Request: fold
Amino acid sequence: MAIKKSDIYRSLWDSCDQLRGGMDASLYKDYILTLLFVKYVSDRAGQPDALIEVPKGCSFDDIRKLRGTR
Reply:
């Protein structure tokens, strides 16, 4: 059985609501936008046209290696 895109979106939305807890949405977005920015910079690291250089040991891949996750 295929998973519907709407089910995935609903599940993600519900997860975000649970993580947010009692925090106001206007404050919560600051955390999420910061996390998305850090993820973007980390993904761009090492690419020849990247304008930002992420120091060794500071990318998401390095964190995953430290935690032993994939």
Observations:
- The first helix runs from residue 5 to 20.
- The radius of gyration is 16 Å.
